Amino acid sequence: MDNIYSQRIEMLRSLMSSKGWDAVVISGSDPHSSEYPSDRWKQVQWLSGFTGEAGDLVITLDHAGLWTDSRYFIQAISQLEGTGVELHKTRVPEEVPIPLWLKQEFGDDAIIALDGLSVAACDALDLPGTVISVPDMLSKFWEDRPAIPQTPVYTIETGESRQQKISWLREKISASGFDAALVSSLDNVAWMLNVRASDIEYNPLVISYLLVTRDRVLWYVIREEDIDEQTQACFDEISAEDIDILPYSDIEYITSEFEGKILLESSINYNIYSSLKAANAEFELQRSPIALRKSIKNPREVEAMRQAHITDGVAMVRFLYYLERSLDAGRELSEWDLALKLEDIRSESEDYTGDSFQTISAYGPGAALPHYITPKDDAPVLRQSGLYLNDSGAQYKTGTTDITRTIPLGDCTALEREDYTLVLKGHIALAKAVFPVGTAGCQIDALARNALWENMRNFGHGTGHGVGYFLGVHEGPQDIRQNFNSTPLCPGMITSIEPGIYREGMHGVRHENLYLCVEAGTNGFGSWLKFEPLTLCPFDCSILELDLLDRNEKRWLNDYHKKVYETLSPLLPEHIAQWLKEKTAAI
Amino acid sequence: MDNIYSQRIEMLRSLMSSKGWDAVVISGSDPHSSEYPSDRWKQVQWLSGFTGEAGDLVITLDHAGLWTDSRYFIQAISQLEGTGVELHKTRVPEEVPIPLWLKQEFGDDAIIALDGLSVAACDALDLPGTVISVPDMLSKFWEDRPAIPQTPVYTIETGESRQQKISWLREKISASGFDAALVSSLDNVAWMLNVRASDIEYNPLVISYLLVTRDRVLWYVIREEDIDEQTQACFDEISAEDIDILPYSDIEYITSEFEGKILLESSINYNIYSSLKAANAEFELQRSPIALRKSIKNPREVEAMRQAHITDGVAMVRFLYYLERSLDAGRELSEWDLALKLEDIRSESEDYTGDSFQTISAYGPGAALPHYITPKDDAPVLRQSGLYLNDSGAQYKTGTTDITRTIPLGDCTALEREDYTLVLKGHIALAKAVFPVGTAGCQIDALARNALWENMRNFGHGTGHGVGYFLGVHEGPQDIRQNFNSTPLCPGMITSIEPGIYREGMHGVRHENLYLCVEAGTNGFGSWLKFEPLTLCPFDCSILELDLLDRNEKRWLNDYHKKVYETLSPLLPEHIAQWLKEKTAAI
Description:
Two copies of one chain form a homodimer. Chain A is of the alpha+beta class. The longest helix of chain A is centred in the middle third of the chain and has 30 residues, at 299-328. Chains A and B meet through strand 21, helix 14 and strand 27 of A and strand 21, helix 14 and strand 27 of B.
């Protein structure tokens, strides 16, 4: 029991006993339901040592449990050793979700405490018994708890002014019978105000809330007196537009700032939900109209995203050239070395502000895990055979990228060659699809899988996710998955196509590009859409089983490679341009 | 105003005035929400002259309106002429559905009368104001109103006894907290009791209700004293199993027959719903568990369905042979002649009990209407060019069939050839698909459309519907459509694949087979399913654009044709077998 985590849990239990709480729920989320919560909100990690991206804790007086999914089972078992915390598996048939587990333990009479700031209202409302919100509950034990990040804030050009967006939002919510809207998702705030920062890892966001009422706009963002020059300039610009800039914590007085009915985003935290409820405010939780509007990029954003992908394509080609030449020269390279190298190359662009997610640099069996985490220490070293997979992306001031390439390093088995080719066949089938206006991603997902299915192979993740404009690399509301999602793909949306095949202990293949949805014309049968590739980087053709590709698939690949070469070669040193010419030669 | 229909509407208005009703809603449905209501329930037709399969009337003191969809706009305008009834379009963007229209006219204060027997509860509950149910409202004006059909009832072998099915249903509903179930859909009743009759056009069903309680089974079926021998034998057999056989109209006393909570099918009529409500009975409307169970055919049913399709294949080949030879001989044949001829050929089988829906026999432009109705008088005559489409099916005592063939009659345009080939390409793509267990039809619908989409062509109907075992030719809960339907395709389900292309004023192409869903094996990626063709009849290859088909598509077609020839040729006269050999020669 001298484990640091079990000690922390005991401290929490003392508080529970003194307060008469039966259970405490600690979530892995932040007040804005961000995909990558900052260190301040890594409460699950602080209390249990578990570092997985998804996980929630429940502490009772005689039990401590971590709820997480299969991606993290092995990691959880290892990290929870000695903490006294038991693993509860989610997304398995026998799953007992937290609300049900608490009900089985306590019936409906429990007193359950949670940090309402970091739990979404919709999750808190699912809990049985009496739920008490204790903001920043762990701060009293967590001595060196990190502060809320506060990085320089700046404005960017997006092709639409704040005032245009505010007017649009006012009209939109007013038409639905609302008098105000609280924008709480950080990417929605950033989109509304044309601002960016680096408060969140991998996402260029500012931790803040935005309240839009009929006649006022309030931005809850200031954390300290001491504001850097760039941020001050940004604040001055925004203040000049009659937007009130307030302290972040003033969000607790929100009820005094509006009258009538307020629209809350469905991810709103329980703390705000409860204060509005307590104040008898009129409100409703809904998917924010901003989500769909933001997903449809305007021409200025599209052009910038194209530029970002040219920049990223140059970096990727330089990286692939480096990889091939280094291995040819017999240099020893680990997965970690390569992740660093790619970051180095990308960071040479002045537009680069960071990666858009943690690079997956995986050789051989590692690549068989779609969510592989490249180890910093003792990372596997590449050999001149088999497949190396690199799934990475960058945040440029011009846009967000996300690309996966699987690279044969020399001899490959017949199965590797076949898997490699079938995944590319699936990728191309969807990439070259034409489909009617109104089609949702789930209605065309099978096109990317059919070539795999024919051979009784498949992959367990989605085929594609939406991508933001210098915002989150995962952005809704559209996607391309088997799961039902009624949002149609619209011109201006950017979505990944990334089928794969994974064989445990052997290898993994994934081919990923980002695509812009564009109009393809109108005829007697209706109006049509198609995909235009944004990502510019060759697919290695050396191990393709050409027999498995038909004429049209080969034509698509040749056309794509021609575009890659023509766009990137003028921007590359001559010897790399020459190398690219060979890599993009028609098959 | 001397129009017979406007006179009838005026009679109804007198009643409305005397009763103080603001509006009367007349639906085109029967008490069991049957797809083909019998003549007794053709109330919309009796009141307005409109004969379309889908339509509802609303009569107020100063307005009469028919609500129907685009399939019937032209027909409605023509048939409603002089009746004073106005067309209200449904399934169009500007649609004002009946509940909204009534609300706009009367607010929430109207008194709305309807024949609760022929309106589904879920529709009646959508209406504003006070809804009054007047069973058989029109009978007082409708002098020669047809009686409820009463055709001979007989039992059939299905591989599962009534007692097995009743035990299963009891367990199923008990597990969901119910004490009784009212089976009201006629195909569900027929399935439960292994009985068939001919009360409903195209559907071998008995108009009746079945009540299953914890300890009793009651069948509400008897309509007159006078029962034929066959029916008496069937009733005796069923009575001997302790199933109470009661008069059909006794369903009104249902509340005295059970205690506890009763499961009603979601299509239950408003009359039964209201009486249960009035009696304060405990009930819930749900999709009946019978629907899914019935859709998964047992081995005995599968074997019988195979037999039905051999029988039907022989008839279809004889029909196609007759068509070709007659045209070659210069005989004049109309669409109607051909529909009759096919019925004649099919009826030579002793298992034939009737068609499974109204045959679509369409030449040229007629085939461009997916729901074309072949006119009895002055039907178009076939010429030796262009495309003839025949969509038809039969009810055999061994099973239900549904097949569409498009037949080139001579010279065809390049567009006809291309459309013909692309639709077949789409058909084959789905027919040869392999897909993971758990896949729903909407997730693979695109496979049948992709070849069309690539060429910016499409069709506006579903790709496939479920088919019953000697029951309805349209049977849920599964289907293959763009619309979201979460029911997975399961081994034992039978579904059509029927893509098409329709060009107004020119031609229509549709290629339809029925397929049995079967297991395709299990491997490291999971368990797999595929389709096995039930329909056995050649696709005409003479106008195929072979360039548009790839190797695998040609292989599928050759394998299918080989199976067609090998199965059917021993059952055909030698000259037709020889003809079939040519028609099924490998391409």
